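Need a sequence for this fold. Nothing fancy.
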């Protein structure tokens, strides 16, 4: 397995963050053999496609260059006109071929690793000037791999050339007895096909180099367990920063909760510790739900806001503790507590009717509400 500079084993796969940073630095899997083979094969195809037109324009240029009137030699204007006319027909097929090779060279380099531009990759790396680092690169595993690839390329190309010459030897000998200019055209066509087959032989090297480059890049990106821990710690932030963020989030949620207290229908309290603000929408689809709750200081603040907004405050320690421990803010209270809450809401309604002079004074709310077993909590 790969090791870092201090000898620690890199046994863990690269994280998405590590891969992203490596791309920012221009570190992606690349295959020079793939780019070279792409350009050479494209050059052979381009010459086979546009080579006839190029040869024809070249012959026209040669004829014009060697057949001109004597007066042209004594007139610079005619010389420039003659040269521009000679090269005009040659420029277009040359432009097509060169443009095609330019595009293929870019695409061939990006077939593995994709298109990527990084300014960080252009920055000089002064550590590469170290003789020790240079000697390590010369004698390292990568140097031996490149040497092996070079030897393999020579063997493949020489073997392919030997096979091609053997397959076309009789045809080559037949050219010596063929008539001109047909033999010249046939020889050029044969050379182009031989060049294309030699270039295609490099695909053997490409088939070996591409998987190796992908494997090598993955090995270089591997991380130690400590690096993964450090990355996680940096991405999550320092403990004191996270604690401060949680504190701010808690304070914001508390402010939002206190803003909702004036909308509550009743505040159920345990006078010593707890306060729970409930809301019930008679025409809505929701059961009674909690809009705010708190203990100690926050419980006192809820009661203060309730008094300022003339919201009924009812003391029922068992029910208050049951709601506080079983229901979060904006959640509906459990069905088992519906009867107890209905008793409180009914009492508040009767009390409002009494204050409005429309009914007699209601009986006091019973101390023992219908709190089912399993919902009794202690302070």
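Here you go.
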């Amino acid at each position: 397995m790969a090791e870092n500079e201090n000898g620690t084993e890199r046994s863990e796969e690269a994280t998405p963050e590590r891969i992203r940073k490596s791309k920012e630095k221009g570190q992606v899997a690349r295959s020079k053999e793939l780019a070279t083979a792409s350009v050479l094969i494209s050059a052979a195809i381009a010459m086979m496609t546009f080579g006839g037109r190029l040869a024809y324009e070249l012959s026209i240029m040669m004829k014009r260059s060697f057949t001109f009137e004597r007066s042209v030699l004594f007139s610079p204007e005619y010389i420039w006109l003659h040269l521009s006319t000679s090269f005009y027909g040659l420029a277009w097929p040359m432009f097509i071929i060169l443009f095609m090779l330019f595009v293929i060279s870019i695409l061939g380099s990006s077939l593995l690793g994709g298109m990527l531009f990084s300014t960080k990759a252009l920055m000089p790396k002064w550590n590469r000037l170290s003789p020790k680092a240079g000697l390590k690169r010369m004698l390292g595993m990568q140097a031996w791999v490149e040497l092996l690839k070079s030897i393999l390329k020579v063997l493949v190309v020489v073997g392919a050339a030997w096979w091609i010459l053997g397959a076309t030897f009789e045809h080559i000998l037949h050219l010596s007895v063929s008539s001109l200019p047909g033999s010249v055209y046939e020889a050029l066509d044969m050379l182009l096909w031989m060049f294309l087959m030699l270039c295609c032989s490099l695909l053997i090297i490409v088939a070996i180099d591409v998987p190796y480059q992908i494997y090598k890049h993955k090995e270089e990106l591997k991380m130690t367990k400590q690096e993964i821990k450090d990355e996680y710690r940096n991405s999550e932030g320092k403990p004191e920063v996270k604690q401060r963020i949680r504190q701010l989030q808690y304070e914001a949620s508390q402010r939002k909760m206190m803003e909702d207290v004036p909308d509550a229908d009743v505040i159920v309290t345990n006078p010593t510790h707890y306060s729970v603000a409930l809301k019930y929408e008679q025409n809505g689809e929701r059961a009674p739900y909690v809009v705010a709750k708190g203990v100690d200081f926050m419980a006192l603040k809820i009661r203060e806001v309730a008094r300022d907004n003339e919201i009924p405050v009812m003391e029922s320690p068992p029910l208050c503790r049951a709601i506080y421990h079983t229901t979060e803010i904006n959640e509906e209270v459990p069905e088992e507590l519906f009867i107890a809450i209905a008793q409180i809401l009914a009492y508040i309604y009767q009390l409002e009717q009494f204050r409005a002079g429309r009914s007699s004074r209601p009986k006091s709310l019973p101390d023992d509400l219908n709190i089912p077993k399993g919902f009794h909590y202690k302070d």
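For context: The chain has twelve helices and six strands.
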